[in-house]
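Worked problem 6 (solution included).
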Amino acid sequence: MFAGVLREQGLFALSNLDVSANGLVGKEAWGDLFRSIPEREGGGGGNVFRLTVKGTSADEGLVSLGETGLVCLAGKMGGRGWVRFEGLKLSADDVRDLATFVRRAEEYAKGGYLDVHNVLSLAFVVLSAVIQTEHSNFLRKICLANRAWFHHKSPYGHNAPIVGECPFFRALSLTRLPKVSELSLRRLNLTDSQARLLRSAVTAGHLPSVSSLNLSGNRSVGRGAWGEFFRSIAESGVGLSALKSLDLSETSAGLEAKSLGMAVKAGKLGLLSSLVLRACSLTDEGVRGLTEVVKEGGFASLTFVSLCNNGKVGRETMREFAVATSGIGGRCLPVNSCTIC
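Solution. The predicted structure is:
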């Protein structure tokens, strides 16, 4: 019925179409709805510039449109719009048409913001395509997160392979993204090989403007890969020189805290103001290494640091770190669920 209204009445003033949480709508009905989105007189992009389909099976309707239909839908979204696909369930085969759709719908890149949750196959394939085109110069923010993993609802378990992730990380290692300021790869169950491709991107200077990097929740990356990543920061030219916020919580990165300290000591993280090392396997040795860097003048820009929930670190070691960092600006630091000022 709603699709019929769109067709008959036009509703050309429609700018935000939210059809979330309609789980009973079938494939054909979604296809009918997408085809019914009105266009301006004379063709060209429609007024709709935001389409939200969270918690539905709308992916089936999109796939049923085929490549031509998807490109048509992209045109209807208008020259300023973007689509937020959240909570869809796409197979690797389904992704191909959507990747074509996204390549044609330039606003995914020109809007500067790619935010995809629970659609990891779609996200990785789409990003691989976009990053390798001229549109990569428009990207400013890339956020990927596996919420199904976080909520323990994934039918494949925590260690499920993600279709398309390797092309994405290869593209990241080979392509310069000069304007990306935020890169979030939370809880994606990254592997050592993927972490090394990310390291290659850092070494090559492909992420010169990244000020916020979130790698939290990637428990599968091993100590060796983290060490290589931190050393690449220390040894690179541009590296992550613009980095202000680094979140490594719920990883094993703390095992290589000394290597992270060396990157700071090398002057490659001079702007770092927020460091989150919560529940990341820190040891007394690692924290002492960070403390020494602080005493030698490192972490000069630090305004917040969290070392909570690292049970292997002794209270005295935490206290020494807190005392050392208090000289930077007298801040209070969260330490093992306590606060030492």
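Discussion: The longest strand covers residues 113-117.
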